[in-house]
Amino acid sequence: MIELDAEEARVLGCLMEKAVTTPDNYPLSVNALINACNQSTNRDPIVTYDETTVERALEGLREKGVSRRVRATGQRVVKHRHVVDEALQLSVPEYTLLGVLLLRGAQTPGELKQRSERWHTFRSLDDIEETLQRLTEREFVRQLERRPGQKEARWMTLIVSGAGAPSPSATATDAPVAPAAAPEVVPAVPPEPEPEVRRERSLEVRNPATGELLRSVAVTDEREVDQKVERARRAQPAWAARAYDERASRLRAFRDLLDAEAEECARITTREMGKPIVQSRNEIRAVLERIDWNIANVGAVIAPRVVTPAGGTAVEERVTHEPLGLVAHVSAWNYPYFVGLNSIVPALLAGNAVLYKPSEHATLTGLRLVDLMHRSGVPIDVIQAIVGGGLTGAALVGSEVDMVCFTGSYETGRRVARSVADRLVRLQLELGGKDGAYVCDDVDVESTAFAVAEGAFYNGGQSCSAIERVYANGAIFDGFVSALADVVGAYRTGDPEDDQTDIGPLARAEQLDVLEAQVADAVAKGARVVCGGRRIERPGSWFEPTVLVDVDPSMSVMRDETFGPVIGVQRVADDTEAVACLDDTEFGLGAAVFTRDRDRAERILGRLDVGNAYWNRSDRSSVRLPWAGRRHSGLGVSMSESGVRAFVREKAWHLGP
Ligand code: NAD
Prior knowledge:
Layout: H1 6-19, H2 30-39, H3 51-63, H4 66-72, H5 80-88, H6 92-104, H7 109-116, H8 125-137, H9 140-145, H10 155-161, H11 171-174, H12 195-200, E1 202-206, E2 213-218, H13 222-241, H14 244-260, H15 262-273, H16 277-301, E3 305-306, E4 316-323, E5 326-330, H17 336-349, E6 353-357, H18 363-375, E7 383-385, H19 390-397, E8 403-407, H20 410-421, E9 426-430, E10 435-439, H21 445-457, E11 467-473, H22 477-489, H23 511-524, E12 528-531, E13 535-536, E14 542-543, E15 546-549, H24 556-559, E16 566-572, H25 575-582, E17 587-588, E18 590-594, H26 598-606, E19 612-615, E20 630-631, E21 634-635, H27 640-645, E22 648-655
Parallel strand pairs: 5-6, 5-8, 6-7, 8-9, 10-11, 10-18, 11-16, 15-16, 18-19
Antiparallel strand pairs: 1-2, 3-4, 4-22, 9-21, 12-15, 13-14, 17-20
Helix pairs in contact: 1-2, 1-3, 1-10, 6-8, 14-16, 14-18, 15-16, 15-18, 16-17, 21-22
The structure holds nicotinamide-adenine-dinucleotide (NAD).
Residues 330-335, 339, 357, 359-360, 389-390, 393-394, 397, 407-409, 412, 415-416, 430-433, 464, 561, 563, 589, 629, 633-634 line the site of nicotinamide-adenine-dinucleotide.
């Protein structure tokens, strides 16, 4: 909850409504802002908005991080709705209903339904009753009822007072006001977007190797998200009603089309996110195998099962599986084929409709995948693309879907979890990692250095399960570090479209600052750079493959996700110390042990709190095995039979004679 005082709320309202800007760039329209505050008839009568008052309020907004929140949505132009949403912590239906109550004075659930249909589709009157109940429990409706005769209220008053906890500065605006005294109301439901706002809502896809603009793509706005959800809702039952083989034949056609167009698809991915072309091809080849596995196995996993014990109860016990309905999939960019299709394919095969938001850094790949599916005969409303960044993702996960599959960072994952909590939809989170590798004293240092480097630097280290920390036994430490430096020093960094390239650019330019800060922090605390260590000054976003030694757990590079071509190697005395180090992390995706002794590896790996245990390899996933990060690495399971079950609801049948 952001606790704004009355002036801050008013200034924010005016920024959002009139000047369409954030507290940080207000000077562009300072006069408009002062005028807007002063002209507004529902302003606090004792405050005159001059430059000082506005400055003070803006300073308050900045301190409270309102700009950051606005920026975090990834949009330059924002609607106040998102700030209000965050301040009040309302879900989309609650927000809409509150808006209708405030603005339209609807008295009955029927009226509410009719009037709110434009912004949000309530499925039934029960849905509305339930939302009203939640608003009442959280005091919003009660606050309205305390103002007899006033049908209209101000959203800023609600921000100020929050859920029934008025701040002293809110008292003046909270007092009952006759309707005539408040003719101008800042709408709680966002107004129609201005035409120029619409035009600006496009996503610029740039080549991270050069900075060149590849394409501008129209962003799906919130209203369109709701419309797509509605269309998917209508289309899903017919898709689910088809025989499994029929759904599978469409997905098989998709698989064959992806295979036929693999080279073009690989180029699209490499151009928009910088993955070396050979690795883009590898990802597509591997994803074809995953699609095959799903086609061959999903039908059996979701088939009805009779579980009555032989000679047991007279009641027949049976389990059947029904699709969830609508699955929202919000994706990361680093492995767009794996991440996207790991969810989309089993979800569709199980009879769900899917709303898929590719990452803003892999949008063209995502659009191509959806296009291939449509060309393969998957109905257009059953798989739909949602285009945009964080704001669009937030709109999608806040819409009336039945499951949210999210892949991304821990911070965003928590935000997503909070936004769906009230609706109790099924949630799957695949989040960040900080996988450690232990190099034992019995290894061949050359081949192990090669394998560790591969696990750390493949895809430029931009893998959730990349090796990001190395613990090398003291007995082989120096030889291993020297071999590692040789391997990493020989990597070819350059044009990702060249077959010979090992390391491409970083997909996200912002990550350069993270890498630079981690290296600087480590060096300041005593680490030594063995190779690399700096950003490469040329167009695009490039960082040298980097190895650090003399690192320790106090350094950010050994604790926080790096997600780039930088690793630290720490000396450890024995297996006991290695286990303690490997487990000293908030993440729990995977860990690797390099040794000739399989039993030793299994003993060590068995003691670790991770979802993936690797002996003499790393950064690997298999469609036959569950992918289930622990702790800050995620919730739920994808791939394997368990991952398929994530997309269905079970029904227990008790069939008595
Ligand atoms: P991110 O968290 O920045 O974004 C992920 C997705 O969430 C994007 O599509 C983005 O547009 C969307 N988004 C942003 N804000 C949102 C909001 N408030 N509500 C809903 N959606 C929102 O992460 P990223 O940079 O795309 O991906 C890198 C991260 O993903 C790393 O932490 C990596 O470890 C993790 N990852 C995990 C796995 C796994 O299997 N565990 C796989 C790949 C990537």
